[in-house]
Amino acid sequence: MSARAKYLILIFIIASTAAWCQDPHFSQFYANQLYLSPSFAGATEDNRFSLNWRNQWPSIPGVFTTYSLSFDKYLPNFSSGVGLLATYDVAGSGKLSNTNIGLVYSYDFKANDDWHIRPGVNFKFAYVGLDINSLIWASQISTGGTLPSTEPPPFDNIADVDFTASTLAYTEKIWVGFTVDHLLRPRTSLWGNSTSVPLKIDIYGGFQIISRGRLRKKLTEVISVATNFMIQGDFIQSDIGLYYLKYPMVFGVWYRGIPFVTTQAGDAIIGMVGLKYDRFNVGISYDYTISNLITTTGGAYEISIVYEFPSSRVGFGRRLHAIPCPEF
After folding, report:
1. 325 contacts 62 by C-beta, under 8 angstroms
2. Helix %, strand %, coil % for the chain, to 5?
3. Region of 295 on the Ramachandran plot (φ > 0 left; ψ -120 to 50 alpha; else beta)
4. Which pTM does this prediction carry?
5. First to last CA, the chain
6. What is the C-alpha separation between 155 and 151, in angstroms, rounded?
7. How far apart are CA 17 and CA 267, in angstroms?
8. Contact yes or no for 286/300 (Cβ under 8 A)
9. For residue 103, what are the contacts with CB-CB under 8 A and spacing of at least 6?
10. Nearest to 180 by CA among 129, 231, 139, 227
11. Contacts of 267 (CB under 8 A, 6+ apart)
């Protein structure tokens, strides 16, 4: 098969995927906790700043690049967390982009002696844009010179609002939660049609198999199992992974595409290595494609940086109970 034919097939697959799922996806779920679930706002007693970058299918120029920036803090007097989350996703030579900026809030309460519950919400502004001047039209690549010049279609960038709700329950060893995104179904059509983003549901959880030691109020050796299921429109994605923390290093491996509970069985294997140094967490991961796109896409690269710094507090609010999930 020629390279051109492969790219045409890949473009068709991308277009089909876009019809199923509009949202970018991060492999390092817990290094971008506010994106996974607003219930994680204020999940640390310090102020937290997170930066995430993902380059998906780098062998295909200009396909998917995603940036995420967030800040959150814990409010002990109110048993609450607040934060700000911004994401920017851009695809293709025409720079088709999705921008979301949202205010995040969560509340932590004790259900019984073992379980804590954290509901959360994210109210956000959504913007879909296209740089039409970067597109290449048929009249610009015709070798015969017979095609007339093409008038750009009447595209309009779209601005709308959206809402996310979530709940997280956890003990000292177990966590489980779900997130429902796009409850306001924001518009996405650049043609003025009524097309909107389908609901997205994330169901995630896990448990610590082994946990030992303490350093600055945090464990020094942990083995955790975690899962994540995402449903959006007709698309279902399932992941299961294993983390090993031996301070200051973290190692993780994920399998994406669990048979019978996913749209694409056997999609990718993700490897991750992270470093926890003082107040910094730095993680690097790579998605190795194992589906029929193995020779075409180049997988996906992801980098995360999390920085926590002390917060000045007034009053004597309730101490935060640590959530046992990984940090990458």
Report:
1. no
2. 10, 50, 40
3. alpha
4. 0.86
5. 39
6. 11
7. 13
8. yes
9. 82, 83, 84, 122, 123, 124
10. 231
11. 237, 256, 257, 289, 290, 291
Measure the CA angle with vertex 237, ends 235 and 239; round to 5°. Answer: 180
CA atoms of 80 and 63, how far apart (whole Å): 38
Residue 314 phi, psi dihedral angles, 5° rounding: -120, 130
Give me the phi and psi of 113, to 5 degrees please. -65, -25
Q: What are the structural domains, with CATH classification, of the chain?
A: 3-309 (2.40.160.40)
Radius of gyration of the CA atoms of the chain, in A: 21
DSSP per-residue codes, 114-166: S-EEEEEEEEEEEEEE--GGG---HHHH-SSS-SPPPPPP----EEEEEEEEE
- How is residue 243 written in tokens? 């983390």
Are 276 and 265 a contacting pair, CB within 8 Å?
no
Q: Within 13 Å of residue 107, how many CA atoms lie on the same side as its CB?
A: 6
Selection from 13, 43, 17 nearest residue 30 by Cα: 43
Q: What is the pLDDT of residues 15-67, one digit of tens each?
A: 444 434 468 889 999 999 999 999 999 998 889 999 999 998 777 766 789 99
Place of tokens 């003990």: 171
Give the pLDDT confidence of 141-151 residue by residue, as tens digits.
555 555 555 55
Query: How do 221-232 and 116-129 pair as beta strands?
Result: unpaired
CA distances from 153 to 18, 138, 140, 173, 190 (A): 20, 13, 16, 55, 10
* CA-based nearest residue to 107, from 134, 131, 80: 80
